[in-house]
Amino acid sequence: MNTLTKMTIAATASFLAMAAGAWAGEVVWWTPNFNEARARELVGKFQAANPDITVKLEITTTDGLPQRILTALQSGAAPDVIDVQHGWVNGYAQNELVLSLDEVVTQREDYIPAALEYNTWDGKLWGAPYRIETHAIIINKADFKAAGLDPDNPPTTWEAFAEAAKKLTANGKSGFAITGGGEVGNTIFRSMPFMWMVGGGIISDDGKQVLVNSPETIKAVTYYTDFFKNGISPSSTLENDGTANRRLFIAETVSMYQSGQFDIQSIRKENPKIDIGVIPIPHPEGGKTAAILGGWSLVVPSAAKNPEEAKKLVAFLAESENQAVLTDTFPARVSAMEAERFQDPILKVFKDMLPYGRPVPAHPSWVQISQAYFDGIQRILLGDEDVQEAMDGAAAEIEGLL
Q1: Are residues 293 and 358 in contact, defined by beta-carbon separation less than 8 angstroms?
Q2: Domains of the chain (ranges plus CATH)?
Q3: What confidence tens digit (pLDDT) does each residue in 101-156 have?
């Protein structure tokens, strides 16, 4: 072997060592913007305890996030840890896009069972749930009183709720804001529970049957979209996501909207004079309410550059004390819910809604299925199609995905 060849081999080995060193010990974590401050606090704590690991935070936004994550996972150019909604995990697992976290999530008896179910497939756990939530209806108590309604004896049925929303729509205010734009999950979370209350859905729980154009679902979608059709939801509904509705509520141009407890702090901070109330989501006469049990989990992509370091970070974030910090709704661990910040009386109705929470169907194409439904909702709100026509179109798309 000549000297030049030896030098080339040595240089190549040195380059590879440098490249490995550049990656070793670095964990790239994609976390949504609403988590940024809490994530940075926990990263500081983690790095102090693990000086050999550097965590690089990359902040995401929810608009377009499902597709961005899916593209990253499929391309092999994914980060090491990603915050994802529970409902996405099963599809990633079935498509071999994430690593099992069986050995990472311990003390499972301390977890809300449904949160673990969301992340389980083929007998293994593929995500680490840290946040759970259900929606309720956030109301302006002063508006109720001005409209002759009793905020302490709120409407509970669909008919009574719609009538109250109509009474609240006065003097430039909208009675009840629905979502029609932004990230798809906003509209899924707000409309799908109405389907469940009457026996409908987008697809069956086993993922084998399309339900989105069934008579039951048509009834629920009609109820939901009629708030806009009848002028009760704001004219900007087609563009509005949950954040936009919160801002309208803070501006006191909306009297009621559906959301989670994560909005309470922002309302109190930005308009402390609003007397906030929280009421359960209304149900059909003689029926029961329902909600999506939502929330977020942490996953480690199959293409993670440093999976072991990533799993170490996930295990740290899964600790009860840290989980109580990271979530801005309820933690997935029962013991974490004992933290003082979860004892605020205004959270009672959100807690009361938890037993009515259900997971979305586990299907590898759920992201695309929910997009097809959302596109149908937009066609209804635009006035391009009636409810039956729009849901028939969604059904045709979804059938192909099943």
Answers
A1: yes
A2: 3-133+294-358 (3.40.190.10), 136-292+365-401 (3.40.190.10)
A3: 999 999 999 998 888 988 999 999 999 999 998 999 999 999 999 999 999 999 99
